[in-house]
Specification:
alpha+beta, 5-stranded mixed sheet, globular, binds flavin mononucleotide
Length: 495
């Protein structure tokens, strides 16, 4: 059954014992984040939380409850996407791809919209009054301070909308983009939009600003969970995230016309903030913000959004998240992307068996990759391919191992990699774009990367010594000892 709204997702989580309701009064400023952080740091990601009594910054009670950590476990992530497990979605994509595809990464990615259309799940615009517009604030009614927007960390520049779907349109091609970009509340009708320079929303804005055109933008909060997730997925600019969400949930996403601009928004959204960015207005200082690196991102200049309308359901739930020192909820959103996008990576780099971005590497800092090595130097071929593939180009450290290594277990991956490398021989530096959030690079968004060839070295690669075997107990001894293990009372790791 596909989930059509945040309310349905919350009800499903509740029924599955995945949700804890908090009835005590909790402040939107810091207190809610402190409790959410403790939940997220619990084994397996802790439960989803629904705060029913939230205190706004002026001390009054929020009219809207706050949901957090909705996506913060493997189980909840699979429930959100209506899949048995995340690799099942990857397998559906593989099936779609079992056809002749053009050469080259970009050509292959550009095929993606067509492939998704094959699935017959394009979003549909409905007439009539959508649920997300049951209540409309316009003009003087607009006051973002009535929403329970949380302040996450003590040194943050202010309250932040942290789990939005930011909707914009490419002014040239008309293609839609949905990005999960944090948005700082700057006043009753003002926001600062933190889309980083490598992201699609920022590209739309640069184009609009070059033309001197005012840019409409909508910020939807809470919708069907597949759409919320899709905002965080690194799809190519030509792919509409609502089409992708339709593919994921096997049902089109219902859209509605925004009330104050020419954009479509999810009809089932809880809350939608509509606005415009005027390129004649100066940029505003956004931040600092306690980021998913575990450090504060410095304040910087970003575009200011003037809010033109706020629409919502009669009883909306405000959905949010916090980022900070890992692991946090965003690890599970990123993990879903990792699993779902594996077949697409394999399409262009077929020797990839698996890859994994462990939580402590916060996605761009560390990627383990296992490959089916067939010829000398192949590990370097894979590194170069990954550093040329979409947002993977931001990866700071790539560690390439042989196919038998389970890269989803970082302890195993490090154990093998650290044994297999001769540092001087097997490490290579490269240069390129680096993540906006990398505070160590020599200049903003530009710096070095390192790749480790931690595969077994071949004679053709100049390795003249004998490579040793991995230690494994023989099967016969194992079976004999399995039979006696339980009687010995040793405990610990049994058969
Ligand atoms: C919780 C969360 C918060 C995020 N915040 C931002 C942000 O503030 N700015 C940004 O550029 N990307 C942010 N991202 C990453 C983007 O959502 C991600 O790169 C996505 O692919 C961007 O969409 P796009 O490819 O359509 O630009 C965040 C991701 C998550 C999961």
């Amino acid at each position: 059954m596909s989930l059509d709204s945040l309310g349905q997702f919350i009800a499903a989580l509740d029924a599955a014992g995945e949700l804890v309701r908090v009835r005590q009064p909790v402040r939107a400023k810091l207190e809610l984040a402190e409790l959410a952080d403790r939940a997220m740091k619990s084994p397996g990601g802790g439960p989803a939380l629904l705060f029913e009594h939230v205190l706004l910054d002026d001390g009054t009670r929020s009219a809207y409850p706050v949901a957090i950590n909705l996506f913060g476990s493997v189980r909840r992530m699979t429930m959100a996407l209506g899949a048995g497990d995340l690799d099942e979605i990857g397998a559906r994509i593989t099936d779609l791809l079992q056809m002749q595809v053009p050469e080259g990464f970009i050509a292959k990615l550009s095929l993606l919209p067509k492939l998704l259309e094959v699935g017959k799940f394009p979003p549909r615009v409905h007439g009539g009054k959508p649920a997300c517009q049951e209540i409309v604030w316009k003009g003087d009614e607009i006051d973002l301070r009535r929403l329970p927007v949380i302040t996450c960390w003590p040194k943050d520049g202010g309250p932040y909308i942290t789990l939005p779907m930011v909707i914009s349109k490419d002014p040239k091609r008309g293609t839609r983009n949905i990005g999960m970009y944090r948005v700082q509340v700057m006043g009753k009708d003002r926001l600062a939009m933190h889309w980083q320079r490598h992201k699609v929303g920022a590209a739309h804005w640069r184009e609009m600003a070059e033309r001197g055109e005012t840019m409409p933008v909508c910020i939807a909060i809470g919708a069907d969970p597949a759409s919320v997730y899709s905002g965080s997925a690194p799809l190519p600019p030509t792919v509409d995230e609502f089409l992708f969400a339709g593919f994921l949930r096997k049902k089109p996403v219902a859209l509605a016309k925004a009330v104050s601009c020419d954009l479509e928004v999810p009809a089932e959204a809880e809350i939608v903030i509509e606005g415009v960015i005027d390129p004649r207005e100066p940029l505003v200082t956004e931040g600092p913000f306690g980021d998913h690196t575990g450090f504060y991102s410095l304040a910087d200049l970003y575009p200011s959004v003037k809010v033109t309308a706020v629409t919502m359901r009669k009883d909306p739930v405000y959905a949010t998240t916090i980022v900070g020192r890992p692991p946090m909820e965003d690890y599970y959103l990123g993990n879903a992307t990792e699993r779902i996008f594996l077949p697409l990576l394999k399409l262009t780099v077929p020797e990839i068996v698996d890859y994994h971005m462990p939580a402590e590497g916060i996605f761009h800092n560390l990627v383990f990759v296992s490959i089916d090595k067939q010829y000398p130097g192949q590990a370097y071929k894979v590194m170069n391919a990954l550093w040329g593939a979409g947002l993977m180009s931001l990866a700071k450290m790539l560690v390439v191992v042989d196919k038998w290594v389970n890269v989803r277990d970082p302890q195993e991956a490090w154990w093998v990699a650290l044994n297999n490398i001769d540092p001087e021989r097997d490490a290579r530096f490269s240069m390129g774009p680096v993540d906006v959030l990398d505070h160590s690079s020599r200049t903003f968004t530009y710096g070095s990367k390192i790749g480790f060839d931690a595969t077994q070295k071949w004679a053709e690669e100049g390795f003249a010594r004998e490579w040793p075997e991995v230690i494994v107990m023989d099967e016969a001894t194992k079976r004999r000892m399995d039979a006696v293990w339980a009687q010995l009372g040793i405990g610990g790791k049994g058969p």
